[in-house]
Amino acid sequence: MAYGTTLSQRATSLLDTVAPKGGLVTAAAAAVLGSALLAVSAKVQVPFWPVPMTMQSMVVILLGMAYGSRLATATVLLYLLEGLAGLPVFAGAGAGPAYMAGPTAGYLLGFVLAAGVTGWLAERGWDRSPAKAVAALALGHALLFVPGVAWLAVLFGAEKAIAVGLTPFLAATVLKTALGAAIMQAAWTVVTRRSRV
């Protein structure tokens, strides 16, 4: 099925289109690659105003769009397990259980929610329409911020949580949403052209 047009229909994911006969090995390789991309995207900082940005949130939601809900969620959970085990996969130097229960805990939960929901929307064809892709990626970013800011509010109060955990990242989020939608449209254009050859 090329497009999912109702909530019960499932469209083929970008990964399934590229590797239609992929099985468990393909899924495992994709999960490992995705968790590596998350780790790299956490470490690379891009100068931006008012604060430098990483591309990690965009990678989370693009994994959802490209992999579909189940594999994207599994990929993000693998990434979090790597961090829980103490591997240096997060933006800072910290890792392990104490780090994951700290101020970033809500955002880490948000990664799982964002990947799962954007993947679910992609399975219904939202990754193929520019407007729907923007909407799906914006929703993915919102799902990332809601638990992140909520947990910061528990730790530091609502006003400080919004001031340090949301407001400085809004401009970068708009940019990453637009860039992510453009990447998905370009990826589908390339895949569609190759399938016609």
Question: Can you describe this structure in just a few lines?
Answer:
The protein is built from 9 helices and no strands. With 197 residues, the protein is mainly α.
What keywords describe this structure?
about 0% strand, about 200 residues, mainly alpha
Structure description:
This protein is mainly α. 70% of the residues lie in helices and 0% in strands. The radius of gyration is 17 Å and the shape is globular.
Strand percent estimate: under 5%
How many strands?
0
Broad shape: globular
Average per-residue pLDDT, rounded, comes to: 90
Provide the low-confidence segments as ranges.
Answer: 1-5
Category by helix and strand content: mainly alpha
DSSP summary: helix tally: 9
Most strands sheet: none
Distance between the termini: 19 Å
Helix-strand sequence: HHHHHHHHH
- Radius of gyration (CA) equals 17 Å
Helix content: 55-70%
Topology (SSEs and partners):
Layout (H helix, E strand, L loop, with lengths): L13 H5 L5 H20 L12 H12 L1 H16 L12 H4 L4 H18 L7 H27 L1 H8 L4 H27 L1
Helix pairs in contact: 2-3, 2-4, 3-4, 3-6, 3-7, 3-9, 4-6, 6-7, 7-8, 7-9
